[in-house]
Amino acid sequence: MSAKLIDGKKVAEITMNLLKEDVVNWVNAGNRRPFLKVVQVGNDPASTTYIGSKTRACRQVGIDTDTTHLPDTVSAKELKAAIRSFNEDDLIDGILVQLPLPSHLSSHDVIESIDHRKDVDGFHPMNVGRLTVDQPTFRSCTPAGIFELFQYYSIQVKSKHAVVVGASNIVGSPMAIMLSRENTTGKATTTICHKFTKDLTSHTIAADILVVAAGQPNLIKAEMVKEGAVVIDVGINRVADETSDKGYKLVGDCDFEGIRKKASWITPVPGGVGPMTVAMLMKNTLLAAKKSIYPED
Ligand code: NDP
Predict the structure, then answer these.
(1) pTM tops 0.90
(2) What number does CATH give the domain 141-275?
């Protein structure tokens, strides 16, 4: 078997074009442009790169945005005061605090200080809680993007055995919740694995749908995957590559070449899940502007 490629770049482009039309219609109906406030603490180069791609995406779909830079010495009190002022600003629809934060700041604490109605990343406990009870919410962008891919390629989730490797608050956990809980798109029998999972292969080999978000290059090898499985590789890892000008290349968590001979569908890295994550952030920002999730009284 040779797996069919799930082309996240193409689907993201289609999604972004649809969102662009939505924004045009929204503005033509007399509304102001949606506005996304990004907060960057410190100068982590990877964060700067991610913010750059989010800013470009905003420009592409017609969402206004700016980034507030705070020094990496900022106190929790100062950061939360800034967030509070953005919460109260009616011209700001969505707020995104770029993670990770410097170690003296608690990301839980900071995320909780964002108004849940502006939490376009979908990380606030209110939004995560609503996800677990299958209520309308800002769905975490990476899992939401994976569900768009399932829909685009008509990949059936219901009644399948899904295995998620990785249990972080931003990818693995919400992915597992959505796979298991969501009435319309989910309803898979779901297993979630993490560092303390014994005999990882015994779980991955049973997966009809395998989602890997561990941040460990080459963690999942062909012999760990069931014939005909759908394999979604969320990982983005830099590994040394002398043939590249940059000195590194990006790889996922899966042995792509080995697994593509066994799987039915597979995402490449790059060009798989990553572009969808940014597109879903745009979608959430538009939902926030329209007050679709939390209508005003
Ligand atoms: P975290 O480091 O926060 O979480 C990793 C998770 O994987 C943890 O739950 C951890 O277990 C688990 N894990 C680590 N090693 C193993 C192992 N050997 N076996 C089983 N489980 C393991 O990472 P993120 O969730 O933030 O990101 C995961 C990957 O996805 C990264 O490469 C990141 O760059 C990428 N990413 C990609 C995005 C995209 O848009 N494509 C978006 C976000 C992230 P434990 O809980 O026990 O520590």
Answers:
(1) yes
(2) 3.40.50.720
